[in-house]
Amino acid sequence: QISGEGGPIRVNADTSEVMERQRQVVLIDNVDIMQGNARLRADKVTIYYGGTGATQTAGMSGFGDIESMVAEGEVFYVTPDLKATGDVGTYDAKADTITLTGEVVLVRGEDVATGRRLVMRLEEGRTTLDGGDGQVQFNISPNERPAGEAPAEDASN
Amino acid sequence: MTLAQARKRSSLVGMLRLAFTAGAAIAAGIMVGHLAANAVTSGPGKIEQLTSEEVVTMVNARFTGRDETGSTIVITADTAQRQRDNPEQIALQNPRLVTEDGTEIDAPSGLYDQAAQTLALFEDVRLIDAQGYDFRSTSAKMFISEGRVDGIDPLVGSGPLGDVTCDTYEIVEDGDRLRCRGNVNMMIFPGGRDAHGNASAANTATPAVDEE
């Protein structure tokens, strides 16, 4: 899943390959995945299914549920709250997280942050950015705040 | 009748008897010779070669073959008609191909090439397999011995994962891999189609994907 809301996932791509035995779906070139209000774009996305055969879910035979997704090449992740880009994006169903690594840029409203690793917890809606062996850079645009609201703290790794 | 006349007549009869016997012997010889010649040239059990004008039509035809893994493939058809110019090519009506693992492919018309071991299907091609995939297209070419299907026309399908449409497709490794190319649109139902109360799109001509 790429959205905490769940629901059907709509996929567009130039090429796809469904591999029954490995229980994988590979999407290649101009991959555009939408689910609920979240969207993931990348050059290539591989979806791994965790099925071992029959599952409780009616209608599914063999493939089971999505276990993880790996997006590679100019990865964009967009929700109404944030936009994030990175080199590689990984969704982990068990942890219910999407992790972007590489040259990570996170944009929220007018604030921009860069780092090496961004972890987004879908259900909780919590995002953690860390600089890896470098620093996290924050660029916060202080716009007119109502009186009494404390400015955002300066995070350091 | 004088003695001379009688002697003359009996020699005539003798000559005629001789000529008649010789004629009979010659006729018998010709017939035996013809039979012998025919037997030598045609040889026992050799099927007479079809001339190009002759068209052979089989009703309720049935062909069996094997793919590269050795599993049996059966092709049936309401009628099968050899082509005039190429006896290896057989035009089929309502052909249906069934594989050992339960995959069924059928169409209103097709062309089976015995030499090349290919089956080309036209018009409304439908493929259903044991895993629950249901695909439709307007053409498909089966490479029977390779266990491969090639489709140059758009594909609409649904299966355990969800729904898919694309411009061209290829099914390889005996149905283990489905490759779609060009405008691939998928609708994936995490946890299965019925987990979301999603209507099965199997019968609709185009899956529930709205254009952007």
From TrEMBL, chain B:
It comes from the Bacteria. Keywords: Signal. It comes from Henriciella algicola. InterPro entries: LipoPS_assembly_LptC-rel. This is LPS export ABC transporter periplasmic protein LptC. Residues 1-27 form the signal peptide.
